[in-house]
Amino acid sequence: MSTSSLHADCFMCGLEQNEDTAVVFRDPLWSGELVPGYDVPGWFVLRVRRHAERITGLDEAELTSFARRARDLVAAVTEVTGAPATYLMVFGENHPHFHALITARGDQIPEDRRSGNILSVREEYADPEAAARLVPGVRHAYERLAGDTCPLSA
Questions:
Q1: Whole-angstrom Cα distance, residue 47 to residue 7?
Q2: pLDDT in tens, 48-82
Q3: 42-79 b/e with 16+ CB inside 10 Å = b?
Q4: pTM score, two decimals?
Q5: Which pLDDT score is estimated for 96?
Q6: In which band, very low, low, confident or very high, does the pLDDT at 149 lie, cut at 50, 70 and 90?
Q7: Is 33 in a helix, a strand, or coil?
Q8: Which of the listed residues 27, 35, 106, 144 has the most CB atoms within 10 Å of its CB?
Q9: How far is residue 130's CA from residue 57's CA, in Å, rounded to a whole number?
Q10: pLDDT, tens only, 72-117
Q11: Cross-strand pairs, 31
Q12: Distance (Å, whole) CA 134 – CA 79
């Protein structure tokens, strides 16, 4: 990954410095990982590794591979957490770098805080240690589902 393709003031670009223990996978285009401040167990981000804003900023290779990476990471998170619903959300207002937030929604989440309201539980359900404990299981499930043998390859 070329540092010239990153923006120094971009929060999502800064995740390139994440410890391997927070990373489910990295390939040359995408990374799936925990995000500080969004460390609810079962919440991960899928982000393009170079700085690109909005889905319209993705190049052809990124665009072509996005759906498969999203599908496989959502499937791995769902399998490991046993969540009855797993959301894939794309906003990009707070952090203008193309990424998708994957949120496993457990039965304990009240009905009025489901769907788009799931973000309102971020602080209440934050548990960095429990979130980190899920990474190895999600990594293993992701490797099996995606067929990746070396998920941390840069």
A1: 14
A2: 999 999 999 999 999 999 999 999 999 999 999 99
A3: bbbbbbbbbbbbeeebbeeebbebbeebbebbbbbbbb
A4: 0.90
A5: 87
A6: very low
A7: strand
A8: 35
A9: 34
A10: 999 999 999 999 999 999 987 888 899 999 999 999 998 999 898 8
A11: 26, 47
A12: 11
Matching residue, tokens 């010239």: 4
What φ, ψ does residue 72 adopt, rounded to 5°? -70, -35
Vertex 87 angle, CA 74 and 51, to 5°:
75
| Cα separation values, 72 from 50, 113, 148, Å | 20, 25, 11
Q: What percent of the chain has pLDDT over 90?
A: 79
37 dihedral zone (left: phi>0; alpha: psi -120 to 50; beta): left
Tokens of 119: 């973000």
Enter the tokens of residue 34: 């925990």
Q: Which amino acid, residue 145? A: L
Which residues lie closer than 8 Å to 8 by C-beta, 6 or more apart? Answer: none
The one-letter amino acid code at 60 reads E
